[in-house]
Amino acid sequence: MAEPTPAGRTVRAVRRRARALLHRLTRHPRVAPLVKRLAPRSVRTRTTLAACASVAVVLLAASAAVLLLLRVNLERTVETGAREQAQAVARLAADGHLGASPPLDHGTDFIQVTDADGRVVAASQNLTGRAALAPTGTRDGHNTYDLHALGREHHQRVSTLTADTPTGPVTVHVGASLRTADTAEDLTTAALAALSALLLLTVGALTWRATGRALRPVEAIRAEVAAIGDRDLDRRVPEPRSDDEIARLAGTMNAMLDRLEAAGTRQRRFIADASHELRSPLAVLRTQLEVARTHPDPEVRADLVAGALEDTERLQSLTTDLLLLARLDATGGDRPDEPVDLTGLVRTTALAGGARPHPVTLHTPDEITVTGNALWLGRLLTNLLDNAQRHARHRVTVRLSRDGGTGQAVLDVANDGPRIDPADRERIFERFTRLDDARSRDDGGTGLGLPIARDIATLHGGTLTVRDTPDGTTFRTRLPGTGR
pTM surpassing 0.85? Predict the structure, then answer.
């Protein structure tokens, strides 16, 4: 890799020092708060400043290019005129027809002809009697001359030619004025500055207005969201008619508010139902214990204590279900991903639990594996079996299979009990819902078994539905398989 030149190293050093100085200034305890206060805070202001700054940079570069091209063309025109004048004077001198005062063409300031010894042999009237011009230096690649003899300073382009004459070589100096070029450059600079300022003002005004109109729906959304409290979840943000990012943002906000409203409603209903469900067994339990404490008959007291134990078990089961629901709700939709031998789990769960009111007929394949949580999937099957045992007349059937089309594991838990009315097939999965409240309480149901089972199926990426069969009701669970 080539070593940087001294100039390159100098430029880099200057940049580093400038950055360090800027960093120190912005970190200074007095400057930093000022910079922070002056920094624009609104998107509208920052967008307008960015647009104006971008346009200003473009205008500055374009104006510099225009002025440079204009200056180059004007100076080239002046130099061409001076060279042509010098060539004409040189031809006259070579032919011996050069007079003492050659005439000036339009745009030419002076003419001076000197011989080999530096003596003036011819000059325009404004330099008559003046000494020969001598170079005083260079500027822009051209020799400069002391032109105070003309009575005032001028920007000049001096063209110099050497010609051979019958009396010897002469040097011709022809000076052309750059006043026209300077005037044109000044006028063009003023015009570009005025047009640039007008364009910047126009861009700033249009950007400010357009940004304000674009952000007006955002401000409306912000104000509406700020006004929505935990008791006003039925309110919605206004959705613009345009099909753009802001409209999609409003739609997303309203969808989120729909979910929040549904969650709030479900939470309030759940709290009310849980309070009611806990209050009833607690009241019964307290009554039984108070009566047992004061009743004189030992047999009656024993019966009352036994009933209190049953209510305690029911209360414990309800509390366990509530805790499980809270855990399922707290998962946030994170799907368990442990491999589970569903065939073995179904066999173990269906055959466990001791004596049941009705026999369980089991149909399972050799091996079906799913991903999930074995404990929760076991709870799903246990809840479905308890529900089937509670409503069956003679038998309960458990069937596990694989859907050849989708590869899903299909678990059917059927009972030959009364069918469920189609209007109630979704309602039974709501928490604390009992189609026959008195019978469910007597049988020990809490109204949470089926909702827990559906939540577990949903958490595993599956579904739980109910459908009629020729001999009763079937609860069908579909779970994504692993291909085994």
Answer: no
Number of residues that this document lists for the chain: 484
> Is the confidence at residue 6, as pLDDT, over 80?
no
> Mean pLDDT throughout 65-82?
88
Domain 338-479 falls in which CATH fold? Answer: Heat Shock Protein 90 (3.30.565)
H/E segment holding residue 281: helix 245-294
**What does pLDDT average to over the chain?**
81
- Measured over the CA atoms of residue 41, residue 46, residue 47 and residue 48, the dihedral's sign is positive
The three-class DSSP label of residue 331 is coil
- E-strand ranges in 345-430 read 360-363, 369-372, 396-402, 409-415
Please give the CATH number for the structural domain made up of 230-330: 1.10.287.130
Domain segments of the chain as ranges? 42-227, 230-330, 338-479
Instruction: Give me 318's structure tokens.
Output: 């309800």
Evaluate whether 387 touches 475 at the Cβ level (below 8 Å). Answer: yes
Return the percentage of the chain with pLDDT > 90, whole number.
17
Return the axis-axis angle of helices 298-330 and 245-294, rounded to nearest 10°. 170
Lowest mean pLDDT across 209-213, 221-225, 351-355, 448-452: 351-355
SS (H, E, C) the chain: CCCCCHHHHHHHHHHHHHHHHHHHHHHCCCHHHHHHHHCCCCHHHHHHHHHHHHHHHHHHHHHHHHHHHHHHHHHHHHHHHHHHHHHHHHHHHHHCCCCCCCCCCCCEEEEEEEECCCCEEEECHHHCCCCCCCEEEEECCEEEECCHHHCCCCCEEEEEEEEEECCEEEEEEEEEECHHHHHHHHHHHHHHHHHHHHHHHHHHHHHHHHHHHHHHHHHHHHHHHHHCCCCCCCCCCCCCCCCCHHHHHHHHHHHHHHHHHHHHHHHHHHHHHHHHHHHHHHHHHHHHHHHHHHCCCHHHHHHHHHHHHHHHHHHHHHHHHHHHHHHHHHCCCCCCCEEEEHHHHHHHHHHCCCCCCCCEEEECCCCCEEEECHHHHHHHHHHHHHHHHHHCCCCEEEEEEECCCCCCEEEEEEECCCCCCHHHCCHHHCCCCCCCHHHHHHCCCCCCHHHHHHHHHHHCCCEEEEEEECCEEEEEEEECECCC
From CA 120, how far away is CA 112, in angstroms rounded?
A: 7
